[in-house]
Each structure stands twice: as C-alpha cells, then as structure tokens.
Design brief:
It is a single chain. It is built from eleven helices and seven strands. It is α+β, with helices and mostly antiparallel strands. The chain folds into two domains: about 50 residues; about 160 residues, Muramoyl-pentapeptide Carboxypeptidase, domain 2 (2-Layer Sandwich). The chain has a five-stranded mixed sheet with strand order 2-4-5-7-6. The longest helix has 23 residues. The chain is elongated. It starts with 7 loop residues before the first helix and ends with a helix. The structure holds zinc ion. The site of zinc ion has 5 residues, from strand 5.
C-alpha cells in the first residue's frame, strides 16, 4: 500500500485551499447570458430587410465600406466609352496646303475596300484602303441611296499615301509643262488648283472618297444630285465647292466626299461653312 504523501502545507500547518469547481448549471447560465447579449447587437442586422428604415442606413454603411476597401483594389484602366471619343483626333481634322497631315497619323484601322463583298459599289483601283469608320458611314449612305433608287456607284479613290500623291503631282506638272506648254511657275499654279501638294491631301486621312459613275462625268448625274442633298445626313460633306474655292484653294469637286461625323456635317451644312471655316470657328 502506497503511503499518502504529506504536502508542505499539511506539514507546515498552512491551510489547504480547495480548488473551486464550476458547476455545469452555472456554465450553461453564463453561456446563455453571452448569447443573449450578443444577439442583442447582431439582431438588427439580421432583420434589416424587414425594417423599413434600416436599409438606407445600412446601404450608406455598405457604400462607405466599399469606398474604404476599394482603396486597396487596383483601379481598372479600361473604361467603356464610345469609340469616337476614344480617338485622340477629331473626324473634322483639317488637311490642306497650310495644314499637312500630322506625322504620327494612325492608319492602322484601315480596311481594304476591294475585299468587301457588297453590291453597293465597285472599286476602280486595286489596293484601295480607307478608315473603317468612314467605310461604315459610306455603306450606310449608299444603302440609303440605293433605297432611293440611286445607283450604281464607283469608288475611284480613297486613301492615298504621300508617295502616291507625289507621283500624281509630278505627272500633272509634267503634262502642263510639255502638253500645255506652260512656264514652270504657271504649271505649278495650275497643278496647285487641282492636285493637293504631297502630304497635304485629304486622301491621306482615309476619310475621303471620290465617288463616280462608271463611264460618265459625275457632275449633273442623279448620283451627284443625291449626294449633294443627302451626304451630310451620314456624316459626309462635299469638300470642295465652287463658292468656297477662294477658301479651300481647290476647284469644285462634286465627287469628293469627306467624312467629318454627323454632328460636324450638320453644322457645316446649316451654317454653310467649308471645313476651313468650320475649324476656325469651332476648333
Ligand atoms: Zn478626291
């Protein structure tokens, strides 16, 4: 039999403190009290949908919470906005003898017109490109023309590179010098009135089209008449008009349309402004 061990307290006569034990009943009572107090605070949040006053307060709290937590969330760089305002340039960009095409002009969004399968128009030259947004507007316009019984249409010219413009300029100058026998100075003056200087042609923008009728002179055709009357409704202008020659420096070209966007085209028609006047007044 093992001998009971004498503790120091017993030995020294110090009274032994009996370890106090919690009864299961008391434990349950404490637990119940804790749950009761906790539910007092949690309850309003749980019943928020049933309370006609609460949702507003809570929504404020939620939005504050979102504001606070969103600080740590990276701000998205992409914001969905209409395509036109995404572009750094304006469709009413002025390109003429005193306003050459900007050196960094973006031609990456250009489409090959020859590759389009459409009954709306034919394309005269191979490898004819244009700005896709202007092509969309052109398609919309010629669809409306066809609905009015006005066809056929041919695209004689759209985007033209600066190199191609140089070639046209040189050929025209050569013709005036040799065939027409003009002096150097007079030949230059004559070419300037009909052909834009390389780098200064609207065709460099991809927003201009020469619309023609195969085998016919365009002026006076139903197509020319319809175009003159309706093109602005689709964002185009007849860029070179006889009455504005002093301002544009180019003789009348009823076949040359330029896409400027519906808003700008409407203003130009309403106020009878050519692009030079429009940009001076509004840009
Ligand atoms: Zn043209």
């Amino acid at each position: 039999m093992r001998k009971k061990r004498v503790t120091f307290q017993e030995y020294s006569g110090t009274p032994v403190r009996k370890k106090r034990q919690l009864s299961p009943g008391l434990l349950l009572a404490v637990l119940f009290a804790v749950l009761l107090i906790a539910s007092w605070y949690v309850f309003p949040y749980l019943t928020v949908d049933d309370d006609p006053v609460f949702p507003e307060d809570v929504s404020n709290e939620i939005s504050d919470h979102i504001k606070l937590t969103s600080i740590s969330i990276p701000v998205p760089t992409f914001t969905p906005v209409p395509q036109a305002t995404e572009q750094p340039f304006d469709f009413s960009l002025l390109v003429n003898e005193s306003h050459p095409l900007p050196a960094d002009y973006d031609v990456s969004g250009f489409v090959l017109l020859n590759a389009m399968e459409t009954d709306l128009f034919t394309v005269k030259e191979p490898d004819t490109y244009a700005d896709s947004r202007a092509v969309d507007a052109l398609t919309e316009m010629l669809t409306a023309a066809l609905a009015d019984g006005i066809s056929p249409w041919q695209i004689s010219e759209a985007y033209r590179s600066v190199e191609a413009q140089q070639k046209i300029w040189d050929e025209k100058y050569e013709k005036y010098r040799t065939v027409n026998g003009l002096s150097e100075e007079k030949a230059i003056q004559a070419v300037k009135r009909r052909v834009a200087f390389p780098g200064c042609s609207e065709h460099h923008t991809g927003l201009a089209f020469d619309l023609t009728v195969p085998g016919k002179s365009f002026a006076g055709t139903p197509q020319a008449e319809w175009l003159n009357e309706h093109c602005y409704e689709y964002g185009f202008i007849i860029r070179y008009q006889a009455e504005k020659e002093a301002l544009t420096g180019i003789t009348a070209e009823p076949w040359h349309v330029r896409y400027v966007g519906k808003e700008a085209a409407a203003v130009m028609v309403r106020e009878n402004l050519c692009l030079e006047e429009y940009t001076r007044k509004y840009r």
